[in-house]
Amino acid sequence: MADNYETEKTFSRRGFLKMSGIATGSLVAGTYLGSLLDTNESEESPETETASEDSGQSNEQAAPQEDYTRAYKFFSKADDFKTIEAASERIFPEDDLGPGALALGVGWFIDHELAGGYGVNAREYMKGPFKEGTGFQGPQYPILRKDLYMEAIRVMNETAQENHEQLFYELEAEQQDEILTQLESDELTLRGAKASDFFEELRLATLSGVYSDPLYRGNKGMQGWEMKKFPGAHMSYINEVEQDGPVELETMPLSSHAESQE
Amino acid sequence: MARELEKTNVVVAGLGWAGSIVAAELSKDGKNVVGLERGEEKKTEDYLTAHDEYRFAVGHEMMQDLSRETLTYRNSTDEEALPMRRYGAFLIGTDVGGGGVHWNGDTWRYHPYDFEIKSMTDETYGEDKLTDDYLIQDWGITYEELEPYYLKYELNSGVSGEQNPMGPERREPYPTPPLKEVPVLTEYKEACERLGYQPFMIPASTISQQFVNPDGQTINACQYCGFCEKFGCEWGAKASPIVTTIPTAKETGNFELRTHANVVEIVKEDDEVTGVLYIDTLTQEEVFQPADVVVVTSHTTNNTKLLLHSDLGTPYNPETGEGSVGKNYCLHITPEVTGFFDKEFNTVTGAGALGICIDEFNNDNFDHTDLDFIHGANIALKQTGKRPIEQNTVPPGVKNWGAEFKKESIKAFTQSLSSHAQMITLPHRNNYLSLDPTYKDDYGRPLLRVTYDLTDHDRAAHDFIGQKIEEILTEMGAVETHRRELPEHFDIFPAHNDHIVGGTIIGADPETSVVNNYLQMWDEDNVFVIGGSNFPHNGGYNPTGTVGALAYRAADGIKMYLEDNRQLAEAGEVAGAN
C-alpha cells in the first residue's frame, strides 16, 4: 500500500506540472500552484522522477485492467439502455472522423447522470403550480428527467414495434432516424412533456457524453476531444496561444491531477 | 424568534465585487465589518478542478441553486409570470466572490455620454429622438467625478489594456500592458483597419503580467488556459474578490466573513433601519445582525428583491410611472455574427477578456440623426477559448443532429469565429421588477418577478450593429456568415448575455431613483445599495468596471455617513457637474 501511495502521488504531481505548463518554464509565484511547485523542487527532483516514472508507467499499461464500471446505475433492463445508446448514436454517429456516441460510452454517461442530480432535476425550481407558459418562459414541466427518459423509451419502442415489429435499437438507421424526427417535430406524444423538448434534452445529453471529461463515463479514451482537436484539461497554453492554427498537444484528462490516498 | 447578535458598524449582504470592495475599504478604515454570503467560501485552490466544462458550464455549479430560489418571468403585464426553472438566458452567481469569480474579466469604463445620456441626447438630437416610453435618465454623477474610482478599481485588479482611440484620454495608463495580440486578433485587427476603423485591445482583468496591487495583493499572469467564464481561475490570474478584496479585508482583522448566511430582510424598527435578518442555510436558523449601516450588494435581481421584501423605497408602478424600486430593468442585448472560414484557427487557447474591438459605432461616436436609435455598441472579437460541449455551431441550413451535424460541427470548432457586441440596451416603461403573487422561495418569501420584452429601439440598434459585425467578418475572409436574429419576444431559456441591470437605480432625483450619487438610499440614510442594479441603462460595454467604481464611491460615502449620520446628497444635485 505504501508503495502504491507514493506512486500515485508522484504521478499525479508530474501530470499536474506537465498540464500546468510549469515544467516548460512559466513560473507563478505566490499561489497554491506556486507552492506546489516549490514542494516538488525541494522534496524531489521532478526531471528524474519523470523519467523513471514514464518507463514504469508504460509497463503498467501493458496489462490493462478490466473495466468494472460498466454496470447499470439507473437503467434496469438492457432493452431500455440499448434504446438510449442507439438513439444517441443517431444523433452523433460513427463516421470516418471517428467513433459515435455508442462507442464513446454515451449510454453509460446518461445512465450515470440519470441516477444522480440530473435525473431528479436537483438544482431546478420544481415547486408548483405548473402551467404551460407562452413558449418564451422556459420549460415548465413537473416531470423528472428520469421519468421522462423512461416515458420516451416506452414510446420509441412502441412506435418501432407498431411500424416494424422490432425494438428501436434493432431497426435500421433510417428507421431510427424516422422515429427521432417524429420526436423532434412533436409528431409523437409523450406523457409529461413535449416530445421535441425531450429530443432536445437527449441531444444535449449526447453532446455532453461525447465531450465531457471521461470521469463522467463517456468520451471514451478522450476520442471525442481528439476528433475536435480539443486537448482536454491543460492548465496553461502560455506557450501555444500565439501559434497559428490548432494546438497539437497530448490530450489530458482531469484524472491526471486528482490526488488520492489509495 | 431570531437569535440576535452583537452590533457591528457595517453589515454587507453579498460578497461579490461590490460587497467585498466595501468590506475591504471600511475594514481598512478601522470599522468593524460583517460580511454575509449565502454561498460557501471559495479560494483559488478550490478551482484546481476548473477545467470541467460539464460541471461548471453545463451544470452551473457556481450559480445560485434554483431549487431554493429563482425568479419568475413574463414578457408583458397581461401575462402570468412563471418561474425560471432552469438556467438559460442569464446566470446568477453565488459563493464568496460571486459573479466576480466566474466572470470573463472585461473591465471597462462607461463613456461620459452614458452618465449624461438624457441631457446630451436631447441637446444633440432634440427631445423627441425617443418616445416617452424609454426612461433614459442622467445618472446624477459625471464621468469626471467617477474617474478616480474607476482608477482605484483598475489598480485593485491590475487591469491590462491600452488607450481607447475613441474614448476619453486616460490620466494614467492601465496598470499592466495589454494581453498578447494572438494571430486571430491580428487578422481581425487588419480587417478593421482596412475598413478604416481603429481597433484596440479589450481592457482585461485576466492580466498580462504579475501585478501587486496597492493593498499588497498579488494577481498572477494569465496562462491563456481558455476557462474563464463560468469557471474560477486556478492560477489566481483573473482579478476577483477572492484574490484581491477579500484577503485585504481579512488582513485588517476588522472583517468577519460569515458564509451560508442568506439575508432575507433589512429590518426597520421605529422608522429606522437597525440591521439585517438572515437565515443560516445549514441549520435554517433565523439570525438578526444589528448594524449602524446596511450595505446591500447581492446580485442585481436580489438587490431589488431584498428592498421589496423589506418595504424600503417606493415600488415602481408601470401604470402610473411612479415609484422607483424595480424601475429601469435592462438586459444586455448582444448582436452576434459567426463567420465560417476555409482555414483552421487556434481556438482552444485564450482568456476571458482576450480580444480586440472597435468603438466607431459606440456611444455618440457617430451621427444618429437619420437612425431610429441612440448610442451603439463596442464590437469585438475575442479568443476566450472554445470548449467542446457548448461549442457546436454549424453553418445555416445544417440540421443540429446526425451525420452532417457531426462533420460540420467538428469542422466549425476550428474553422468558425464569432464576433459580438456589447450593445446599448434602453430602459422601457414596461420592463421592470416586482414581487410575484404566486411563487415563493425556500424561505416562504415571494420570488422576484421580471417583466421584460425586447424594445423597438433595441431591435433597431441590434440590426445596425449586426450588419457592421458581418462586414468585418466578411472583410476578414469568412466564406459564409450567420447573424443571430432576435426572436419575436425575449425568450428566457436559450443562453444569452447575463448582464442584467436596474431596479435600484442611481440618480439626482429622489422621485425617479432609489440611491443618490453615493449609492445611499434617498429614503434610508443608513442603507447603501450597490451593483448592476444601480445602472439606469446598460451601456455599450461590459458592466463590471462601473460596478467596481460605484462600489469604491459608495465606500467613501459610507465613511462620510459614519462620521455624521446624514443624507449625503441634495435632490437635483449632480456630482461632478460644473
From TrEMBL, chain A:
Classification from the root reads: Bacteria, Bacillati, Bacillota, Bacilli, Bacillales
Show the GO MF annotations.
Answer: gluconate 2-dehydrogenase (acceptor) activity
Q: Name one Pfam family in it.
A: Gluconate_2-dh3
State whether keyword Oxidoreductase applies.
yes
Q: Where is this region: Disordered?
A: 35-65
Q: What class of enzyme is it?
A: oxidoreductase
What EC number(s) has UniProt assigned to this enzyme? Answer: 1.1.99.3
Keywords recorded for this protein, A-Z? Oxidoreductase
Cited InterPro entries = Gluconate_2DH_su3, TAT_signal, TAT_signal_bac_arc
Q: What is this protein called?
A: Gluconate 2-dehydrogenase gamma chain
- Return the Acidic residues bias intervals: 40-52
UniProtKB/TrEMBL annotation, chain B:
Give the record's keywords alphabetically.
Answer: FAD, Flavoprotein, Oxidoreductase
Is Membrane included in the keywords of this UniProt record?
Answer: no
Record's Gene3D superfamilies? FAD/NAD(P)-binding domain (3.50.50.60)
Q: Which SUPFAM superfamilies does the protein's record reference?
A: FAD-linked reductases, C-terminal domain, FAD/NAD(P)-binding domain
Its EC top class is oxidoreductase
Q: Which Pfam families match?
A: GMC_oxred_C (PF05199), GMC_oxred_N (PF00732)
E.C. code: 1.1.99.3
- UniProt key word Electron transport: no
Q: Which family does it belong to?
A: Belongs to the GMC oxidoreductase family.
Q: Which organism is it from?
A: Jeotgalicoccus aerolatus
Q: Which PANTHER family match?
A: LONG-CHAIN-ALCOHOL OXIDASE
Chain spans, region Disordered: 160-179
Residue ranges of the Glucose-methanol-choline oxidoreductase N-terminal domain?
217-333
Q: What is this protein called?
A: Gluconate 2-dehydrogenase alpha chain
Give all residue intervals belonging to the Glucose-methanol-choline oxidoreductase C-terminal domain: 427-551
InterPro entries reported for this sequence: FAD/NAD-bd_sf, GMC_OxRdtase_N, GMC_OxRtase_C
Entry GO MF terms: gluconate 2-dehydrogenase (acceptor) activity
